[in-house]
Structure formats: C-alpha cells, structure tokens
Design a protein that fits this description.
This protein has 293 residues and is of the alpha/beta class. Helices cover 42% and strands 15% of the residues. It has eleven helices and ten strands. Helix 2 packs across helix 3. The structure holds D-glutamic acid.
C-alpha cells in the first residue's frame, strides 16, 4: 500500500526548515508542503490562546491541501497545540518536535543534567521538563527562555555581534551553575536555534553536547509513515515487522519525483534567502499565502 499525498509542516517562520531538511533527507521520495507563518512571527512571546489559534489555522490550511501527516516543526506550537490538533483532526497523524528532542537529549547525557533553551511559551508550558522526565525521571532539567534570539535569526542574522552577545548572555546562566549542577547536554528547544548551532556550540565549549530535535523528529516521522503504510509510491523501506524486498535498512529509493512547496505568510524575499542557504543548490520556490491577522 502507498500514499502519494504530501506531508505537511508548519512553523512560525524559517526555523522549521531545519526539520523539513532532515525529513527530506530521510524520506527522499516524499512530497512536502511547508508553511512558515513569518507574518505573525514570533510565536514564543505570545499567549497560549494566540499560538493555539494560529496553529489551528495553519493545520487546517494543510489539511485543506490534502496532506497525509503533519509535522509541527515548531516547539512553541507543539507545546501549546499538539493535543488539541490531534483531537481536531483525528484521522491525520501529527508529529511534534518536543518528544523526539527530549528523547535525543536523554540519550546524549552522561551526567543526567540537561539544559534546554526555548521560547518563553515553550518554557512556560513545561513541555520539555515533562517530556524529559517521561524518558528518565532521574534526569535534571534546567530550562531557560531565549526568545530574544528568535527575531534575529528569523531576520537572517546568523552571526552579527548583537546575536553573539545575545547567545553569550543566554548561555551565561548555564556556565554559572555550581560544579555539581553543571549540564553536559544542551537541547535546542526551538527550531530556529539549529540555524546558529555552530555559534552556540563554540560559545559553550566542547564539554557540552548540543542536541536538537530536527533529526529525531524526522526519524519519528519516518517511522510513523512506514508503520501506517503511508509511504509514497516506490519509496517503501519496509518496517521492523515487514522488511520489504530490499531490507529494512536499505536506503529509501525515490521512483516517483517528489514535489516540494514552500509557503510563507510574510515577505517572500527574506524567507527565500534563508531557504536558499539551508537547501543549497536545490532551488526551492517560495510562494506567499495569506492568513487572518
Ligand atoms: N521556531 C519556533 C519554536 O520552535 C518558534 C519561535 C518563535 O516564533 O518564537 O519554538
């Protein structure tokens, strides 16, 4: 059985492109539709009611485009809206980024002390604290809001002195922890942050591992597509129960050309600039769509 419909993704802006990139790497035969809500960005300093409202509108827009699954490529929207969206569209599998990120961080830590940087709304929701504790209740979690970094990154700033200073002051609180409370793993709990991963890692130093949810969420998506027999025609990899003709670990083959659509609710130029940097020579056309303001 196969399903040629696209997979939907949404974020408040460009951050979720980090998740889209990983998903396209793992599932090269799948078509995708991505919506970045740059016109109403940032989400992380808004109320839960506003984030929920926007998330509903974007999920509905993807469902109207007949997607077969939706990745909420935004930690803020995942924290606030995942449960609601699953109930609103019970036939659509929704994949959030919080649980995969938490699982990756718990696997990475050796000392059992994980730091999380995320938006104010994500930290306020306690979603990472709960997800990490669900994985291993003995792990200590130090979560810090870092909303100030988000608008800079969304504007395409990946290296200015202002950004470096903002990263330094965000990380200072982890560096200042007493020896017994020092973290050994920092989880990037906002999909904008992998865009400045190198800067964060170099400010932290080598003794702290930096983990994000993009690769883990893409792996979860791959599993959800596979076990539910939603693979695009010609791209099946089989499952643990049914290894398929080529075997479970064989690379997916793309026999039908996938179609990728990128939409922004904001200005196309800024969005394309970052998409080009991320996707390199694979040209991704960006179109504008409108939303309620
Ligand atoms: N990229 C988003 C996240 O993962 C949201 C950033 C924002 O809009 O504040 O939380």
């Amino acid at each position: 059985m196969s399903d040629p419909r696209p997979i939907g993704f949404f974020d408040s802006g460009v951050g979720g492109l980090t998740v889209l990139r990983e998903a396209q790497r793992r599932l090269p035969g799948e078509s995708t539709i991505y919506i970045g809500d740059s016109a109403r960005h940032p989400y992380g300093t808004r109320s839960d009611a506003e984030v929920l409202d926007y998330a509903i509108e974007l999920a509905d827009a993807l469902v109207a485009r007949d997607v077969k699954a939706i990745v909420i490529a935004c930690n803020t929207a995942t924290s606030v809206a995942l449960a609601h969206l699953r109930q609103r569209h019970p036939a659509i599998p929704f994949i959030g980024v919080v649980r995969p990120g938490a699982a990756a961080a718990v696997l990475a830590t050796r000392t059992g002390r994980i730091g999380v940087i995320a938006t104010e709304a994500t930290v306020r929701s306690g979603a990472y604290f709960a997800a990490i504790k669900d994985q291993n209740p003995a792990v200590q979690v130090e979560a810090r809001a870092a909303s100030a970094l988000v608008p800079l990154i969304e504007a395409g700033d990946l290296s200015s002195p202002q950004l470096v200073e903002a990263v330094r002051s965000t990380l200072a609180t982890f560096k200042g922890l007493p020896a017994a409370a020092k973290i050994d793993t920092l989880l990037l709990g906002c999909t904008h942050f992998p865009l400045i991963r190198n800067l964060i890692a170099s400010e932290l130093g080598e003794s702290i591992a930096v983990v994000d949810s993009a690769a883990a969420a893409a792996a979860t998506l791959q599993e959800v597509i596979s076990v539910n027999h939603l693979d695009a025609p010609g791209s099946t990899r089989g499952t643990a129960a049914d290894p398929g003709a080529a075997g479970h670990s064989a690379p997916a083959r793309a026999e039908v050309l996938p179609v990728h659509q990128l939409f922004t609710t904001g200005a196309v130029a800024g969005f394309s600039g970052l998409a080009d940097r991320l996707f390199g020579d694979r040209v991704m056309e960006v179109e504008q769509i409108s939303v309620r303001r």
